[in-house]
Amino acid sequence: MQKIQNTALPADQTQNGFFGQDILSVDQFDRQGLAYIFHVAEEMRSMVERFGSADLLQGKILANLFYEPSTRTSSSFIAAMERLGGKVIPIHGVQYSSVSKGESLPDTVRTLETYADVIVLRHPDVGSAALAAHYAKKPVINAGDGIGEHPTQALLDLFTIKEELGTIDGLRVAMVGDLKYGRTVHSLTKLLKLYNVTLEFVSPPMLRIPNNICLELKHVGIPYRELENIHDVIKDVDILYVTRVQKERFSDLVAYEKVKNYYIVDPALMSQAKGKMAIMHPLPRVGEISYAVDEDPRAAYFRQMKNGMYIRMALLAAVLGKA
Amino acid sequence: MQKIQNTALPADQTQNGFFGQDILSVDQFDRQGLAYIFHVAEEMRSMVERFGSADLLQGKILANLFYEPSTRTSSSFIAAMERLGGKVIPIHGVQYSSVSKGESLPDTVRTLETYADVIVLRHPDVGSAALAAHYAKKPVINAGDGIGEHPTQALLDLFTIKEELGTIDGLRVAMVGDLKYGRTVHSLTKLLKLYNVTLEFVSPPMLRIPNNICLELKHVGIPYRELENIHDVIKDVDILYVTRVQKERFSDLVAYEKVKNYYIVDPALMSQAKGKMAIMHPLPRVGEISYAVDEDPRAAYFRQMKNGMYIRMALLAAVLGKA
Amino acid sequence: MQKIQNTALPADQTQNGFFGQDILSVDQFDRQGLAYIFHVAEEMRSMVERFGSADLLQGKILANLFYEPSTRTSSSFIAAMERLGGKVIPIHGVQYSSVSKGESLPDTVRTLETYADVIVLRHPDVGSAALAAHYAKKPVINAGDGIGEHPTQALLDLFTIKEELGTIDGLRVAMVGDLKYGRTVHSLTKLLKLYNVTLEFVSPPMLRIPNNICLELKHVGIPYRELENIHDVIKDVDILYVTRVQKERFSDLVAYEKVKNYYIVDPALMSQAKGKMAIMHPLPRVGEISYAVDEDPRAAYFRQMKNGMYIRMALLAAVLGKA
Fold first, then answer.
1. Is B97–C283 a contact, with Cβ atoms under 8 angstroms apart?
2. Mean pLDDT of chain C
3. Minimum CA–CA partner of A107 in chain B
4. Are B192 and B94 in the same domain?
5. Interface contact flag, A285 C99, Cβ < 8 Å
6. DSSP letters along C112-142, please?
7. What is the number of H-type helices and E-type strands within chain B?
8. Quick check: C61 and C117 in contact, CB under 8 A?
9. Do residue C133 and residue C187 come from a single domain?
10. What number of helices (H) and strands (E) belong to chain A?
11. Is C75 within 8 Å of chain B by CB?
């Protein structure tokens, strides 16, 4: 759907290219777009630290439409909107509602946009955000569509790398854990391809990074390795991006027992790491990073969560033309 | 319960007659009251289009108490309150809560009114809104009580007719679909009786408009017809108000198969309609209006949704004495 | 966790001792602390009665984290935050969410505090609030942790006694009903120990006040009696604090039938009570106070609910340094 806001774009607001647009996929972003969003996110951080909130989105309403529960993402978007002075229609548990019973997503979205100025959508079906955006005149932000995309997660991950290390170019980034099914790993890798990085993919053999991603990396000339043991990379990495290795993924428990300790981040492991590096995790974690690591200044995962709020503030402000 | 606000009614605020009052039934409204609410709703539209929101209800809190899910109505009231500068206590899924377990509706409402300034109530039992209003000192707005009333839906329907055609008197209005069980059809017909309209009731034989409604129409002298086929009225109607014909209502599937195509609104049907008319639907729709009609300028159902927000803004402002 | 706000406490804000602190248990409160909170609560009442809301907590966000439903408490905290100009992230039904699945409470709380300024926690497990507070840097307010503590309920109960009678010292307070399992009775008794009161514990034999509470009362020299029949105390009490006697607690229904009428508050009983006294109940009630008593000016239970909002406003303002 041609977004109606575009018809009245003042010249100065078109420059960033986000005003009135949907945020559906990491594929929408180039280095310039990322630099813009990260710059706005940094301004959001300064504002929150100094004033708590602003009135930038005063009078604006976000319809926070969650077809499946996700407390973390939902709360982050609510906080983002509220800290910008906007208001929220929280719509959770919509699966139990008469609206969803039999009503198509396009109709639900076109109804909600008569009440709201922007729609954040979480939906279990791949492609649902694009479908919603096709029918909506107001901006739609994809907050996760099944095993499809979750672009704001990838943006906050990349933003965290930049904030923790001060740069992205030149870094050595290790992805650890379930690299086969991990949506966050795939999306972050897509964004990292835009920078000069070196990637280390550390996983059990049956949870290796998909081949198509490797082909893409080769195509753009990003050096990468595939390894099994986190100890082989810990000394050199700038970023250790940890994800969960789920026991349930293993048909062979012997295989699981053999590798499981390769993927536990604890103080002993961290003693081998560089002094300036960052441990990241999309959370929730279930044992793969020990609590004893939490007080380590390199433990960045809760800062990562906070960055999620800043990134979502930046996106909300940008698509509503107020960045 | 004598509403406490009434005891201190300034003369200028009593004129509209809504300050401090409950909104329980369409029977409360006469042409003068409707004209007042519609006038305020139009002002709300202007305000939203120009500024997004106002601070008319600054400092006021709405308890949005939904004993059964209704995303559309709930979201509409939340947006209405938020666009007026008020705040909301969203209470959904109350059926699972200890408050509802064993606690009477009067006690729940009397508790909530100690926190809030106005209560919107959705409840599965007929008469529940009147019961709540009897005990509450603060205004109660009925957002649907089972197969009872849903007055704000009827108001937004009538308001949409006026907005789309510029008038109500003199129109030919067709109601289409399940006229036997359709609560929205019954309530809208009650309001239309106050105007000089002609009604066309188009339904399968087993889903005809109830006889008591016909008797009321005869009593006040409103001309009406009962028909089976939408094609017999499409050329002449100013309003085509479509509701769902549910297959489940038919014990005889042969009967269903015979009539089902009489009630599908598609571009072919619309090619026979007047240039200036409006298609309405309370939504959700399930196939009775084809998507291909959505871009037709006469398709008014999403504008109808938006009018719901304006009507609810007008009602909230009126009962809180701020219209 | 050392609360970070403490590191920058201005001298004038440390005086009350609540800034940046958690509210976990009634044991935290002495008479001076209670006097302070009650003074602030009275100011909140004046403010609400005159203006509806304030902007004291403008820019602040409350994460209202409810692991089990409690409409009354949840709504009260939401209203409290909203009437102070703050905003709320409402998190209910978190038990269905992926955040709670497998994620520890400490991680959930540490994530939410990156979005919010204060966390209100309702959780079914005893000790959960203390656990959350241990890990959180932002203030945590316990809104009930299983059969553990529910300090804001005890505070609003004591505040109501003071508001209804003008004082606490010198009063005769009767607790009626299930004194064995009633968490509110236990917590209120703990607070009353700080004052010069006389206590009457009225219960069936198998629902008597626990012995350890009696020992504590003896230790501090608070006179008390244990009785079975409300009629033996009704003439002399200043406060009648009624709780539910649940039939399910009785293994012997004959015993239940014998005592059940001892615990019904109705107009006949109230005709024997003093003219200046107050009937309180934590609500919900299920028959133990008849509706006919509701219009009695001594019926204080809905005023008690409203006091809950004022107390929670006072606590939120105090822990955020804005009281």
1. no
2. 92
3. B284
4. no
5. no
6. HHHH-SEEEEEESSTTHHHHHHHH-SS-EEE
7. 11, 9
8. yes
9. no
10. 11, 9
11. yes
C-alpha distances in Å from residue A14, one per residue of A17, A30, A319, A321: 5, 16, 10, 8
Look up the domain containing C272 and give its range.
152-305
Q: Which is higher by pLDDT, C152 or B70?
A: C152
Report residue A69's pLDDT band, with 50, 70 and 90 as the boundaries.
confident
Asked if residue A163 and residue A180 are part of one domain, the reply reads yes
The mean pLDDT of A8-36, rounded to a whole number, is: 81
Chains that touch C (3 or more CB pairs under 8 A): A, B
- Shared domain for A315 and A262, answered yes or no, is no
Q: What is the ipTM of this complex?
A: 0.92
**CB count, 10 Å around CB of A124?**
13
Q: Are residues C169 and C138 in the same domain?
A: no
Q: How many domains does chain C have?
A: 2
pLDDT of C8 strictly over 50: no
CATH number at residue C41: 3.40.50.1370
Residues C291 and C160 in one domain: yes
pLDDT digits (tens, 9 = 90+) for C196-217: 999 999 999 989 999 999 999 9
Residue C283: which of B61, B87, B107 has the nearest Cβ? B107
Is the domain of B235 the same as that of B165? yes
Instruction: Please say if the pLDDT value at position A15 is more than 60.
Output: no
Which residue is closest to B101 within chain C, CA to CA?
A: C284
What the block records as the tokens of A177 is: 């854990």
Cα-to-chain-centroid distance, residue C132: 20
Same domain, C173 and C284: yes
Q: Is B124 on the interface with C (CB under 8 A)?
A: no
User: Considering CB atoms only, which of B87, B97, B98 is closest to C82?
Assistant: B87
pTM: 0.94
Q: Is A89 in CB contact (< 8 Å) with chain B? A: yes
The nearest alpha carbon in chain B to A61 belongs to B79
Which range, of B58-72, B78-92, B239-253, C84-98, averages the lowest pLDDT? C84-98
